[in-house]
Each structure stands twice: as structure tokens, then as C-alpha cells.
Amino acid sequence: MNNDLSMSLLVVEDSKETRKLYQFYLQDEPYNVTYVKNGVDALEYLKTQVPNGIILDLNLPDINGMEILKYINEQKLHCAVIVATAQDSVEIVVAAMRYQAYDFIVKPFDEPRLLVTLRNALQHQRLVSTVDYYKQKFERTEFYGFIGASPPMQAIYQIIENAAPSKATIFITGETGTGKELCAKAIHQHSPRKDKPFIVINCAAIPKDLMESEIFGHVKGAFTGAMRERKGAAQQADGGSLFLDEICELDLDLQTKLLRFIQTSSIQKVGSNKTEKVNVRFICATNRDPLVEMQEGRFREDLYYRLHVIPIVLPPLRERKGDILLLAKYFLNKYSQEEQKSFIGFSPETENILLNYVWKGNVRQLQNIIRNIVVLNKGKQVTPAMLPHPISPFLKKFSKLNNNDLEYDTVYPKSQSSSTNQPENLIRPLKEVEKEAILQAIDLCNGNVSKAAILLGINPSTIYRKRQSWSQESYN
Question: Among 94-103, 166-175, 295-304, whose mean pLDDT is lowest?
């Protein structure tokens, strides 16, 4: 992305007379030229900076110029090299081109020959640099923890890059499992605040009566159990970023106090009459539609417009199908290393199934499925038989749709494979499917409820609560 005014040029030439000739020919050219007399000085220069172009003499007093060209090629230095030699031989030309020299000039040469060759070389280098720049910027497969090369994700990366340096509030929306917290972290890490705290408050996970204290802090004795003064998330994030996840779960009364905080940059701890200034960058997220929440009175209109400055809508996995296998392979490699398994890929049938499955839980669901496979199976390739619930019931339907002869086991009893198409014969109650999936997971994990919960993507307390309800139903 350079122009001629910023083009740098290194001339490696031991002859004093030839260096003077270069200076005369280049005196009116808009290049920043550095001259060195030998190969050692040239290599030292290249270790600290890479010029856009090099004019390289092969017959140097200390080392052969071809060694410098070889070094440039091995180190993958992005510069256009013009070889200058008094020997007009095919062998030298072939050797120079093998090491990616752009062109060569035979001594003695005149001014037009040098300038035309040099301008062509630098123009070529500019084009190469431009292509590399746009490839790096618009064909990225990873970005601050995100995995994805699809156009929707390239757009997200660009928005993050543009929005991160600003102080403006970011409002992230997207379905569960699309990476809203990852997006918030990426914004923080790409911002001038990256060395300051990134504090997360999950508005759905903290009880209503504790939320004000969690955000603003409290003084000693503010309420029963407040044994000492405590900093809230706002003070902890001072100078950095405060991420309010699931913002639409916030109580209306607290939304009023949050609005005042955003407007004044001042907080008041619970139980205190003193206000304190803090400097935070607000990032918030929700898996709901904030406009609907506002229209139905659950979210303050003035708070919505105060927060909704730069919206980022994360695409669901079904809108970025080109990333499914990229993500699956990334997770497979990651968890195979963690679990010391030997998986290296997916069978073609498995890849086809993954591409056609509807990922309602998005990336998080795919991640949990791959982890389940790695933990509970062995092998080099992931086969369809290794795919767990809820993909397993999908396999038989998928194989019929594709008119193939593959037979896949599902979690359904064989008696369910009725020839009738009546819904009552094909659909089981959700409670039964859920119970069977949980019990199967516990059994596969040898009774380890915590491990089963992780693989199912739920909280262990959920399993204990479900088992208790099943026991009460049996008792009744």
C-alpha cells in the first residue's frame, strides 16, 4: 500500500565509481536510497529493515551476491530484487530467477535501462503488497478467537476493526452460541483500552436484588451481609471495558440507574450518598430482539437509544455454512490434543451430515458435539456412528433424503421405525427424548454427572433437578 514517495531502495555495490553512477541516475527519482559496499553490511541492513527494492551486485569483495539473494528468498522478505552483473550468462540468470529475483541488468548499463527496470520492479512489488494486504484483511480465517472465513464473518471482523478504537457504545445481538462475549473481547483487545480491565456482568445470572451491588458496589453495612466495602464492576472496569451480557434481562428500575451512569459517567454505591467518576467503555449484548423488548415495555426506550450506537449482528451458523467444517476441524484438533486422542479428520459421510444439520445452538453446539465425540470415541476419522444426540436421530432421516444405503443407529427404539406416517407413531414427547439423552450421557460417562453435563452443554444442577423430578413422578 505504498506510493513512490515512500519507496525505499537498497543498492549493494562495492565499486565507488558505479555507486556514483547510481547516485547520478537516481538523483531525480523519488526514492529513499541507501548504499552499502559489501555483503555483510547488506545482510546486517536486511536483519533490521526490508526495503521495497534492491539493486544487488553479484561480485562483492566478501561474499557472493547470490548468497544474499538466497537469504532474501529463504527469509521470505517482500522486496523486488534487481541483479546487476557484468556476466551475461544463462546460468547466472537461471540461478537468480530460481531465488525469485525480479530482473537483472548487465553492466555497463545506461540510465533508461536502469530506470525502466527499477520502475517496473517497484510497481510489481507495490501490486504484490496490495494483494497481500487485501488477502490478509479480507480472507482471514481467524480473528481474536473467532474462526471463520465466510463473507458474513469477514464483515464482522471489519466492523470490529473500525469500531474498536472508538469510545462509542457497542450493542451486540445474535442467537445463543454465536459468540457475543467473544465479539466483546475482540473489541476490547483491538482497542486502546486493551491493557486495562475487561469486566463481564451477566445480567441473567445474578439475582435481581444483588444486581445493583454487582454493578455499582456497596459500602459496609449497606445491607445484611455487607461486612466490608466492595467495588462493583463499574469501578473494576475503570479505564477499560464493561460488558453487560444479556442486557435485556436487567430490571427496569436498574435500567434507570444504568442510564444515569452512562449519561454522567458517575456511580453511587449502594448505601452511599457520594458519587464517584469512572471511565468505562460500554459493550452490551442480548440474544433477544431489543426493539421488540422496547416496544413491549420491558426495555427503556431512552436506554436503548443510548446503548444502540454501533450495532453488531452476529450471524447464526446456518448463514455461514462455509465455516462449519473449518470450525469442526479446529475443535477436533484442539480437543484431540487435550484428550491425547488420534483424530485427524472426518469421513466424507460425516462432513456431509455436519454441513446439512441445522445447528440451533450455533457454534457452541458444534463445539460441544465435537468434544463429546473426542471424549467418548477413538480412531483416526470421525464416522457417522460416533455422532451423538441430537444429531443421531437426524441420521436416518438424512440417509433417506440422500437415497443412500448407510444404516445409522439412533437413540430411538427400533419399534419406532413404523411403516405408517402418522405423527403419533413418529414423534415422541420431548420429555422422553430429553430424559433418554441425559441418562445415556450419564451412562457413557460412567455415572460422572459433571462430565455428562459439560458434554451436554448444560449445568450439572439441571441434571440433579431433572433426576429429582423423575423420582417424584415415579413415586407418584
Answer: 94-103
C-alpha 378 chain-centroid distance: 29
Asked whether the bond before 315 is cis by omega within 30 degrees of 0, the reply is: no
- 57: three-class secondary structure by DSSP: strand
Tens of pLDDT along 348-363? 999 999 998 989 999 9
Q: Poorest-confidence range of 78-92, 196-210, 448-462?
A: 448-462
Distance from C-alpha of 130 to C-alpha of 126, rounded to nearest angstrom: 6
Residue 154 to residue 79: CA distance in whole angstroms: 28
DSSP label of 385: G
What CA–CA distance (Å, rounded) separates 122 from 125? Answer: 5
Structurally, at CATH architecture level, domain 4-136 sits in 3-Layer(aba) Sandwich (3.40)
Residue pointed to by grid coordinates 514517495: 5
- DSSP conformational letter for 230: E
Highest mean pLDDT among 22-26, 127-131, 260-264, 413-417: 260-264
Selected from 3.40.50.720, 1.10.260.40, 1.10.8.60, 2.40.10.10, the CATH number assigned to the domain covering 317-410 reads 1.10.8.60
Which helix (DSSP H) or strand (DSSP E) does residue 85 occupy?
A: strand 80-85
One-letter amino acid identity for 217? G
C-beta separation of 181 from 243 below 8 A? yes
Please report the sign of the dihedral spanned by the C-alpha atoms of residue 246, residue 250, residue 254, residue 256: positive
Question: Among residues of the chain, what percentage have pLDDT more than 90?
Answer: 53
Q: Which residue in this structure is represented by grid cell 510497481?
A: 123
Contact present, 397 and 209 (Cβ < 8 Å): no
* Distance of alpha carbon 280 from alpha carbon 307, whole angstroms: 13
* Amino acid in position 434: E
CB 10 within 8 A of CB 34: yes
| Domain spans in the chain, listed from the N-terminal domain onward | 4-136, 143-315, 317-410, 424-476
- Domain 143-315: top CATH class: alpha beta
